[in-house]
Amino acid sequence: MNNYHDEQEENHWLSVSDLMSGLMMVFLFISVALMRSAFLERDKIKEIAVAYQENQVAIYQVLQKEFEKDLNKWHAMIDEDTLTFTFRAPDVLFKNGEIELSNEYQSLLSDFFPRYMRVLKPFKASINEIRIEGHTSSVWNRYSSDQVAYFKNMELSQGRTRSVLDYVYNIPSSKTYRPWIKTNIAAVGLSSSKLILNQYGKEDDSQSRRVSRAIESALRSFQSRLI
């Protein structure tokens, strides 16, 4: 009788042991599967990051090649790290305190924009948004408070970027790009939110007043900035 009882108990513990071994194998398989999934996701992210970097370098190179002879005369620059294309002479582009484009700026845009769109055409699938950005100094006039100056300059910067967008949209050579322009180009006025500081950490009024071509370039879930 005791032998029978001992045998039953032994069989019971063997069953529990087999169950535990089975569960451990299941957990092991789950762990391996999760690790494999994590490694695949890591490799995928790495591939996208590499592709993004290559895309960013390629965009910079075509922009630099196309416009390198024009940058000085346009008082413009292209930032290699952020892909920012900035026009730094707003006093030439607009009259003080006004939103209408000067004749000189219209001529510049008529030359610049069609070439800009042409060199970016191969990258259109990876470009999420082009932003035309307007920036001002923090000053409106000496009688204005900081708050009044900020919102007055906001209105000014927004008006100027809308003027730029309206002009480039209506350039005859833009006709084929207009559906894409509607979907992907936005006019953004930033007032004095992104000031340029001098070497002493003080606001550089003239450099802060600028107009930029800002492009949010996205490769899948990654984004870069081109102005």
Please tell me the overall pLDDT.
Answer: 75
CATH hierarchy: architecture: 2-Layer Sandwich
Structural class: alpha+beta
Shape: elongated
Q: State the domain count.
A: 1
Question: What is the CATH class name?
Answer: Alpha Beta
Number of strands: 6
Q: Approximately what portion of the residues adopt beta-strand conformation?
A: 15-25%
Helix-strand topology string: HHEEHHEHHEHEE
CATH superfamily: OmpA-like domain
| Spans of at least 5 consecutive residues with low confidence | 4-8, 217-227
CATH topology, anyone?
Answer: 60s Ribosomal Protein L30, Chain: A
The largest sheet is:
6 strands, mixed
List the helices and strands and how they pair.
Layout: H1 2-67, H2 71-74, E1 76-79, E2 84-87, H3 90-93, H4 103-120, E3 127-135, H5 146-169, H6 178-184, E4 185-189, H7 205-208, E5 210-219, E6 222-226
Parallel strand pairs: 3-4
Antiparallel strand pairs: 1-2, 2-5, 3-5, 5-6
Helix pairs in contact: 1-4
